[in-house]
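ERR on first pass: missing label on line 2. Operator R.T. fixed the label and resubmitted. Corrected input:
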Amino acid sequence: MKIENTTQPVIEARQLDLTFQTNDGPVHALKDVNLTIDKGEFVSFIGPSGCGKTTFLRCIAALEKPTGGSLTVNGMTPDEARRKRAYGYVFQAAGLYPWRTIAKNIKLPLEIMGFSAAEQAERVNKVLELVDLAGFGGKFPWQLSGGMQQRASIARALAFDADILLMDEPFGALDEIVRDHLNEQLLALWARTEKTIGFVTHSIPEAVYLSTKIVVMSPRPGRITDVIDSPLPKERPLDIRDSPEFIEVAHRVREGLRAGHGDDV
Amino acid sequence: MKQIVAVLTVIAAIVIVWYAACIPMNIKGVLTEQERAGAEVQPPSAKDRRDLSEIGLALNNSFAIPATWEQDRPRLPAPHQVAIEMWQTTVQKKITSKRSLIYHGWVTLSATMLGFVIGTGLGILLAVGIVHSRVMDLSVMPWAIVSQTIPIIALAPMIIVVLYSVGVQGILPKAIISAYLSFFPVVVGMVKGLRSPDAMQLDLLRTYNANRSQGFWKLRLPASMPYLFTSLKIGVAASLVGAIVGELPTGAVAGLGARLLAGSYYGQTVQIWSALFAAAILAACLVGLLGLIERSVLKRMGMAQ
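pass 2 clean. output:
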C-alpha cells in the first residue's frame, strides 16, 4: 500500500491559513492545516458547519485564495492546476443548465475546452454509462429526479478526465435510500477510474463507508483535529457497515468531532 | 370557457358604463340641438340649463337620451359610433386612402418597429457593457434612469427640430423617440437577466477555466432569455407610445398620432377615439406576438414545459 508514497503527492497543504475579512471583523476559516493526499486516495472531510471543510476544498480548486502557508496540487499552485483543468468539481446542487439536455450539459466543459464534436459525443456516452444514465442524454434536467440530476453533474465533472474529483456534499440534499445507492455507485466508479477524490460530508457513515482517509475538522478556527487511515478493504459491500472495523472507525470519527467541539463549549 | 365568460363580462360592464356616461356628457349639446329643431326642452332657457347638473337635465328631458348616443360631434362618442367609424375606416376604405386607419396604423407601426429594433439593440448592448464593466455600471445606469424621468412630450419636439436641422426627417426621428422609450426596460431586464446565474454556476465555469466570452454565450445569455422577453413586451408598448408622441409635435400628416391631432383640431371625437382604439389594438397585437415568440423560444430551449 505504501508503494505510491514514493511518487509526488497529489495535494499537499503546509501550515495553510485563510482569514476572511467580513463586515463583522476577520473570520479565521482555516488555521495551520497540514495534509498530504496521495494519488488514488479517497479522502473525506467531515466536521460541523463552519469548520472550513468546504473552504479547504475551494482552496484546492483555486476558488478561494489562502492567506498563508503553502498548497500544491500536482506540484503546481492551485491556480495553475485550475488552468490545466486538473480537477472536476461537483457542487452541493446539481446546477445543470435548464436549457440544455443532459447530454449537452455534460458537453459544456468539453465545448469550453475545445474537444472535437466526435470526441464530445464519445465521452458523453462513456460517462453517461459510468453514472448509469445511458439513454437519458436527450432528457432535460426537469425530467429527471434529484438523484439522477446529481449523477449527471458527476458525469459532467468526469467528462474531461481530470485526475482529481472534488465533491462538496454532493448527496447532502438527497434522501438516505438514494444516498446509499449513490455511495455504492461512487465507490464502483472510483475503483474503475482510479481518480483521487476529495469528498466533503457531514455524515459519519458516509465518510467511513467511502474513504481511505478521513479528515476530521472542527470550527473556530477551522482546523484538522484528526486524520484517520481507514483499515477497511477496498472492496466494500453495503453491509460492511455492520462490521466491527467499520463501527470502530466511526467511533473514532465521532470522538474526534466531539473533542473538536469541546474546545469552545 | 370560464375565461371567455369572464372577459365578456368585463367588456359588457365597460360598454354599459360607457353608454351611461354618454348621457351626462352629451346631454347639453343634444338639448341645444333639439331646441333649435323645435322640441320642447325643460327648462326652456339655455341660461337656466347651464346652471343645472347634467344628470338633472337628463332626468327632466328623458326623451332626448337616445339622441346622446347619435350625435355627429359628441363630447363622448358611444361605443357603436366608434365601432362604425373603425369599420368604415379600415374595411371599407382602400388602404392607400388618406382616411384609412390601416394606412395610418402602418405609418405608426413602421416607426414603432424601427424604434423597437434600435432600442432593443441599444438596450442589450448597454446591458452587456454594464454587466461586464464596473465603470459602465457606475456611469451609464444613472443616466439611463435620468433619461426616463424627462417627459417624452417635452423632449420629442426638440429631437425632431434638432434632427430636422441636420437634414434627418421622415421615419427616423419618430423611430428615435420610440427607441428612447423602449431601450430602458430592455437595459433593466437584461442587466438582471445577465446577472441571474448564481455564484455556484459562475464557480463551475471557473473550474473549467472558461473565459469571459464563453461565460457570456454559454451561461449568461441563455439564462437571461426569460428576462429579455418580459422586457421586450414592455419595450414594444413603450415604442408604440413613442412613435405616436413623435407624430404629435411635427404636424405629421400620417400616422395614428396625426389622426389624434387632426381629430382634436376639428372636434372629431369619433375619429380620436377610433385612433385610440387602433393604437390599443396594435399594442395588444404586438405584445401578443412577442408572447407567442417567447413561448416557442423557451419551449425550444427546454425552459418551458
